[in-house]
Structure prediction request, 291 residues.
Amino acid sequence: MKIERKPPVLDREKVDALIEAAVREDIGGGDVTTELLFETDVECGAAVRSKQRGILAGLGVAKTVFEKLDRNLAWRARVKDGDALESGDEIVFITGSQRHILSGERLALNILQRMSGIATFTSRFVEAVRGTGVRIMDTRKTAPGLRELEKYAVRMGGGENHRFGLYDGILIKDNHIKLAGGVAGAVSKARRRAEEAEENYARFPLEVEAKELSQVTEAVTAGADIVMLDNMSAEQMKEAVALAKGKVLLEASGGVTLENVREVAETGVDIISVGALTHSAPALDISLDMV
Prediction:
């Protein structure tokens, strides 16, 4: 059973609504400082540059910020999302109203820095497991309201997306198992009801979280498609691979870092999901300088 990879595009409707709200949050009734300092508006230029090596993500989203303020601004991009950046590289040159450039500066940079930071951090995990065949995936540990942007940034860094939400995947976790009376019962009920549902939930892979090796065996026997090995040691993962490889996809999750991700990959698992890709990625240093 495959996990379908979402294409590397953004939902423009979601992005537009998100940026509309972000502009209202930051600018509100107006940019007081800019309005006080500049009684008349003049044309100027601004260069957006990377101050660190990294992977670019979010350029089109940053452009949307400025479009909300002034559709007449000229935008000359030098690179595109997914490109590698060196320190000092010019990302885009903007020409137009000084007021609108100043007002959109911080919000646009926040977006570029956060999304590029996630793409860069993801690329390091992908590079760390290169040659093993393991897929690096994100989780639902995203900032509320920013999931569309953050998961897109993961894709720009060479990673893949796990579920986008509770609506597009079946993942039976430890608390589901406790309340459903065990792994076998939970899998059986979810499978049966998915096949009966009008919404065609049966198209989703059925994944089960396992904290112990006995649960791995139980999940495989019950007919799961994917088993998530939650916070298991490398030795336990190797045992799980011996038990279940070829019968189900195996996903390692919990406690994965850049320092140990290669060791995890070499246990033989198929997927490694890393919450840190989105919740702990350091921002990439990017600046906007008026010319």
